[in-house]
Amino acid sequence: MTNNSYLRNAIILGLITAIGPFAVDMYLPALPAIGTDLGTAPDTVMLSLTSYFIAFGLFQIIFGTVSDMYGRKAPLYAGIGLFVIAGIGCALATNIETLVALRFLQGIGGAAGIIVPRAIVRDMYSGVEEVKMFSMLMLVFSVSPLLAPLAGSFIVEDLGWPAIFWALTIAGMAGIVLLMTLVEETLPKEKRIKADFSALKAAYKTLFADKAFLGMTLAGAFSITAFFIYLGNSPFVLSDHYGLSERQYSLAFSANALAFFAAAQCNEYLGKRFGMHAVMIPAAIGFASIMTLLGVLFFLGFDSFWLMAGLLFLGFSFVGILMPTIMVLALEDHGAIAGTAASLMNTVQLMIGAAAIGISGALMD
Asked: How many CB atoms lie within 10 A of CB 61?
C-alpha cells in the first residue's frame, strides 16, 4: 500500500477518532468558567468530566461488539449522531445537573468514534504496517490535545463556554460527512460474528483467557491513567496554584500532548529495529521511573512548575512509545473479534482513568 494511501486513511480515521477526545480537550479551559457561571465548586464541575469518561469507557464495549456483528459504519453513524444531539443540549444547559447528564450521553456517542476506527485499522493492516498506521493515526489524532485546549481558550474568552459545545456539534457533523463520503465498510458480512449471546460470550471468554491480552491491557491502563489524572486536575492546578492564564494553560497542556504523539512516531523504526515486544518493557520502565522521580521530588517539597513540566514531558514521551505497541500486540491474535477486543481494552483503561480522575479530584487541595 502506498504512502499516500496510508496518509489518506490516517487523516480520515484520525479526524473521526479525534471527535470524542475533542469533547474533553477543548472543554478543559472552560471548567473554571462553568463553575463560576453555574455557581458550582470545582469538584462538582469535574463531575461533568467524569460522567463523560464513564460513558466514553463503558459504551466502547457495546460499540466494539456491535461493529463485529453489523459492520463498522452503522455504529459510527449512531454514535456520532448521538454526540451531535447531546452537544446541542449541553450548549443550552442552565444547571450543572443537566450538564452532567448530557455529558454522559455525549460520552456514549463519542465512544463509537474512538473505538470503531481501531477495528477498521485492524481489518486493513497487520504487524509492522499496523504499528505504522496506528502511529500515523495518533499523529493526526494529536490535533485534539495539541490544538483543542488552545481553541477552547479562545472560544471561552471571546464567546463563552456554551460556544464550546456548538463547536463540538459542528465537528460531529463534519465526522458524519467524512463517514458518508470517504469511509468504506471494511468488515464484509461473511466475516461478522453472529448477533447472539453465545457468540458474544465466546468472544469474551477468549479474551479473558488470554493472559497476554489482559496484561497488556492493564499495563496500558495504568500508563494512560497518569495522563488522565493530569488532564482532570491540570486546569485547576496550573491556573489556581501556578497562576497560568487560560492561554498559557492551553500551551502547557499541548506541550505534554506533543511529547506523547511525537514519541509515537518512533514506533515504526523501533519495531523494525528491535521487535515490538522488545520495545514495550523498556518504555514501561522508563515511564514508571520518571513518574516515581516526579512523585518523590514533589513529596520532598520541590514545588516547581518547570520541574513538573519537564518530567511530565519525558514521562509522557515513554507513554507515546508504549501505547501504540500495546494496542498492536494485544489485538494481533484477535482479528476476528477486533472490535470486541479493542473495546474491552479501551473500556478497562478508561474506567481506571475515570476512577483516578474522581479520586484525585476529591483529594485535590
From this structure: 22
Per-residue pLDDT of the chain (365 residues; tens, 9 = 90+): 555 666 777 778 878 888 888 888 788 778 888 888 888 877 788 888 888 888 887 888 788 778 888 888 888 999 999 999 999 999 988 888 899 999 999 999 988 888 888 778 777 777 667 767 776 666 666 666 667 777 888 888 888 889 999 999 999 999 899 888 887 888 778 777 776 677 777 888 888 888 888 888 888 888 888 887 887 778 778 877 888 877 787 788 778 777 777 777 776 677 777 777 788 888 889 999 999 999 999 999 888 899 998 999 998 888 888 887 887 777 777 766 766 787 788 788 877 877 887 787 777 66
Indicate the pTM of the whole model.
Answer: 0.69
Using CA atoms, how far residue 22 sits from 52, 147, 190, in Å, is 12, 9, 35
Query: Over the range 6-25, which residues count as b (16 or more CB within 10 Å of their CB) and which as e?
Result: beebbbbbbbbbbbbbbbbb
Which three cell numbers, joined as nine digits, stand for 214? 489482559
The one-character DSSP state at 194 is P
User: Cα 133 from chain centroid?
Assistant: 17
Q: Tell me if residue 75 falls in helix, strand or coil.
A: helix
Hey, how many other C-beta atoms are within 10 angstroms of the C-beta on 40?
20
Q: Which three cell numbers stand for residue 86?
A: 447531546
Q: CA nearest 74: which of 180, 174, 172?
A: 180
Rounded to 5 degrees, φ, ψ at 302 are -80, 80
- The CB-side HSE value for 42 (13 A sphere, CA atoms) comes to 18
Q: How far does Cα 21 stand from its chain's mean position?
A: 5
Q: Supply angle C-alpha 288, 291, 295, rounded to 5.
A: 135
DSSP 3-state of 187? coil
CA dist list (Å): 73 to 69, 124, 137, 176? 11, 15, 18, 10
Cα–Cα–Cα angle for 247, 145, 29, nearest 5°? Answer: 40
